[in-house]
Amino acid sequence: MIGKYDPANPANRVRLTPRWAFSSPAHALAVFFGAGLLRPAPGTWGTLAGVLVYGLLHSFIPTAGWIVLTALLFAAGCWACEKSGRDIGVCDHGGFVVDEVTAVWALCIALPAGWGWWAAAFATFRLFDIVKIWPGSWIDHRVKTGFGVMLDDLVAALYAWAAIQILLALYWSAGRLAA
């Protein structure tokens, strides 16, 4: 099977342009207003854009507001990725990064506030988004819809949250043993 990021994958031969990205609201949202056009590694750029937006606006929006915004972005992302995928003939193009933004927002909401925590969110989310542990891998390979594009990244965010919690528990238990 050809991997998502394999150069032989037809999806990687479709180059998104700024003209295409801003030709419709769905396209603009799918590429998160241009972040998905950046190369290399558009998913990493999308995640970085998500962390930066979250970090810069965090003090102005309460947690409940972030939960609502994230849920709305998830729903809008399902629509945007579905429509954009149909328009270019590629269901889950690497340049569609609204899924990364939504997932990293969900992860940041679940962590304490602060740039150190948000950097941890960025790093762990990227790891689990690339590795795609089941059921994220199953969703990525089988659910070829806008919903599937968005959902597999939420699974990666859940794994990232669990990894951070485990590392934190190990850190605190090691500190108690050393004391």
Describe it:
With 179 residues, the protein is mainly alpha-helical. Helix content is 68%, strand content 0%. The chain contains eight helices and no strands. It has helices at residues 18-21, 25-30, 42-57, 63-88, 98-109, 115-131, 136-142, 146-178. The longest helix has 33 residues, at 146-178. The radius of gyration is 17 Å and the shape is globular. The protein starts with 17 loop residues before the first helix and ends with a helix. The mean pLDDT is 92.
* Portion of residues within helices: 55-70%
Strand percent estimate: under 5%
Q: How confident overall, as mean pLDDT?
A: 92
Q: What is the number of E strands?
A: 0
Rounded Rg: 17 Å
Order of helices and strands: HHHHHHHH
Bulk shape: globular
The N- to C-terminal Cα distance equals 51 Å
- SS element count, helices: 8
Q: Low-confidence segments, ≥5 residues, pLDDT <50?
A: none
Instruction: Summarize the main sheet.
Output: none
Structural class: mainly alpha
